[in-house]
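Bug report

Summary: structure tokens for YlaH-like protein differ between web form and batch submission.
Environment: batch mode, default settings.
Steps: 1) Submit the sequence below via batch. 2) Compare with the web form result.

Sequence submitted:
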Amino acid sequence: MDVSERLTFFAALYKVHENPDAGMWMLYLTIIMLCVIVYKLGFAKKLPLGKSILIYLFLILGCTILTFLGVFLPIAEGLVVAALILIIYKIRLRQHKKQEMDAS
């Protein structure tokens, strides 16, 4: 069985099997970007600067493990779905609040 058949979409897109160095870095940066988006949309609260830096540091460290798993498991794809769901939720929430303000 060929390894390239088992790669996830993003791992195959970045050609991790042909150029592992550049492919893994691109996958790593993609997973970091998607994790930050999901964190900001779903979980972020106003925190002091020091605590925010600590949160993002641990987020980036956790993304290292997710990158290795993301070669054969759909980690980045799941983050894309989570980001889309949270974007839709935020849009609907904003529309609902706007309607409430218009009604009162």
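Above is the batch result. After comparison, the two runs are identical; trailing whitespace caused the diff. The chain has one domain: 3-103. The chain has a mean pLDDT of 94.
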